[in-house]
């Protein structure tokens, strides 16, 4: 049917073609009636033609530049392709000559070592190849400083531990680079900046030892970091042969904790000023041969002073003993000790309790005479005995030194009575403990 209609209409068409569009439209015509062909089909064709015209106009308005460019390129395509072919042939013919020239240049100048231009070119080429590595190395000091600053700013133990560990890893990497390239000015500069950052980290760690309420875990962690950051501190006492294995770290720890103790006691300055006023009034009364019966402010000050001293001194010595455990071997050569009696020096803790006791006795000797009430004075002396017994559990009992505090005959009898009561109470407690243990 389609072929028949096409043959029928062929005399009226300019270019009769049997394509898919023509076939589809002729099939569509065969389904229409005579009335539809005369009426609705004409309108449908007119409407489709008008819609197609509008679409072509919109497309031309929107993409006319692309059409013009495509037309120009299409018109020049006939000349561009032969020109591209000729240039590609010329390039292919020139590559062997270029290769021969490069080989000749390399052969001619490879044996020349004193050519400044070639040396600069080699250095520039090597720098271009390693620019990423150099950039990473140059960023190491800033990363290390950032890690140290972040660790000092973070108060949480976990965050500080992570950042300090990262800083130590970065410093170890820089030390490895310094070992591999000892003559490199760049590595030396980076190592110098890293040492400045590690000094800051060491200062932060030492300041951390002065923190309030320092716990055992935090103290051990801080001392461990100090051993990694500043290993020379363990060798400051000589050749490292001391039996404690602490070097100068033990002394630094005790100094920091002593500074914290002193700062805590300085918080009692308002009470101490009141006690100083009572001391002045007592001295004036003694010069005028008048009786002195006051001392309440001094009693408050001394009670609080002894309480803080007892708590902090026990904590200091206890932390020290747990952190710096003695590592001396039992198989020490005794003959070598006899040759050099100063070989194994005592630890920093050997004289530290005496310094603490001196600090306490000086304060008591200065202010205890202000307290004239017998019961208050006995309470203070008992409190001192408890303090001595508390520190005595760690090997620092100073009970006998307290007998030197009594400067008057009346106070000597009070001290003897307090000692007698304290020993009687200790004996009863020991008996009670043994009975409980037996049952």
TrEMBL record:
Say yes or no: keyword Protein transport present. Answer: yes
Q: Which UniProt keywords apply?
A: Coiled coil, Golgi apparatus, Membrane, Protein transport, Transport
Regarding the membrane, this protein is recorded as: Peripheral membrane protein
Main location as per UniProt: Golgi
**InterPro entries membership:** COG8 (IPR007255)
- Entry GO terms, CC: Golgi membrane; Golgi transport complex
Q: Where is the signal peptide?
A: none
Residue ranges annotated as coiled coil are 74-101
| UniProt-annotated location(s) | Golgi apparatus membrane
Q: Which GO terms fall under biological process for this protein?
A: intra-Golgi vesicle-mediated transport; protein transport
Q: Which PANTHER family match?
A: CONSERVED OLIGOMERIC GOLGI COMPLEX COMPONENT 8, CONSERVED OLIGOMERIC GOLGI COMPLEX SUBUNIT 8
> What family does the database annotate?
Belongs to the COG8 family.
Kindly provide the name given to this protein in its UniProt entry: Conserved oligomeric Golgi complex subunit 8
Q: Which organism is it from?
A: Penicillium chermesinum
Recall the taxonomic lineage recorded for the source organism.
Eukaryota, Fungi, Dikarya, Ascomycota, Pezizomycotina
